[in-house]
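Lab channel / #folding
Pinned by the channel admin:
"Please post every new chain as: sequence first, then the structure tokens as a reply. Keep commentary short and put observations after the output so the thread stays searchable."

First post following the new format, from NK:
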Amino acid sequence: MDARSWDERYAATELVWSGSANQFVTEELAGLPAGRALDLAAGEGRNALWLAERGWRVTAVDFSRVGLDKGRRLADERGLAVDWVRADVLTYAAEPHAFDLVLLAYLQLSADQRRTAVRVAFGSLRPGGTFLLVAHDSTNLTEGTGGPSDPTVLFTAEEVLGDLDGERFEVQRAERVARLVQSDEAHRGTPARTAYDALVRLVRT
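Reply from TO:
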């Protein structure tokens, strides 16, 4: 989907995504000391806002004006300072070696584009900085629930590590993880279903 398509999707409803940060973002990052954070493909800003609430100085980048406007409004309501930047992650000129944390959450790109975005993200990290990527795993299409139906935008943790071939890092986690998704019919006793994500957490060395 291009920026116009995402603008239309974000404009069609109050919030496309939950107002709460992603569960893996909170689990993986809650213990990190606050510093400078870059949230690439930030969407409506749910993860950027969570980081800002914890003292991070956040730059949130997305190509959707509507998504960023929603995030900016929520930040204003909560008294949070976030630098909202409208840009495409594929061409964004990230400041090199400047951030303590870089986050990519549920970015949906083809393999070549993903490699570009991953390397842009990693290149903006200072030595000792944390790289966190969470995305719909390739196996989710046949084994899980929800997420994109286009297999070309799904991938594994191992493929992300391959995108960073030649870079120096310590792998803290690189695996498939399960996430429970509550159905719209949960109030009628329908059980939650399982989605599968790829999770990669690295430290630049």
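NK: The chain has a mean pLDDT of 90.
TO: also worth noting, Residues 74 and 165 are 38 Å apart (CA to CA).
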